[in-house]
Prior knowledge:
By secondary structure, the protein is of the alpha/beta class. Helix content is 22%, strand content 36%.
Amino acid sequence: MKVERIDHIHIYVRDLDKAVKFFSEILGTKFSQPIIVENQKLRSMLDPLGLELIESTSPEGPVAKAVELRGEGLAAISFKVPDIEEAAAELQSKGLRPVSRVEIGKVKEVQFHPKDAHGVMIELCEYEEEHSIVEPTRKV
């Protein structure tokens, strides 16, 4: 499988605004406007360094359940790949189980179960390079 780079890191938080303030102050970075993914019941913000802070918008959402079980913190590492279907098939052939697929515009993502990767969700992402991780607020 060809991996181009680590694209971004997911950090699950209880309070997105508080986490954005904290990371902005300690790292001197700025975050995007919120990205709302309604079908995943989450709201996230990204910075140019590759941090994606994610909070649940519902107590029943998968992020809320993960935070309740494991607490806040590192949740996933996203790897940019040139061919997501090929890369996903290879990980599946090696025993990793996909748990979610997301398409946001031209961005495609596949997440794999953290139990198959030492407690860290592996995410693959594919997009054209003109994609910017810092975008205006959008709902998907």
